[in-house]
Design brief:
Length: 142
Amino acid sequence: MNKKISIKMSCLMEAIEQASDFSTCLYDLEKQENVWLFEEFPDDELEEMIEDQFERFVHLPDQYDIHEYRFMIAFIDQVQDERIRMKLDRAVRGKGAFRRFKDCLLYEEIEKQWYAFLDNAHREFAAQWCNEKGYDLIMDEQ
């Protein structure tokens, strides 16, 4: 009988917050820490270890699993000030949405609210992701 997989919240949050096109994050079940594979800086030794001991590693969510855009929309929906909400809504339409959104946050001085919202959304995503995968989430943060 296989032991249930447990993943530290701190490691899962790191993977979610650092997700990008250029890297892959895996959780090392033996060491209980993240390992990273970077497109531009291949690590043949690490890649060989992952291939040889594949059951030791869990692929953590990547940017395509996370869909940061949906968090932006959810944030906009809960903004109380209608003027700011409308500006943010316009900012996220079309090419360059992420840059315009961040610029608008800075201009309206609500970036702290965004980052608090995003941290909470990432934590909820982490819990949901683990639940869907059947993994235990170890709450190792204060």
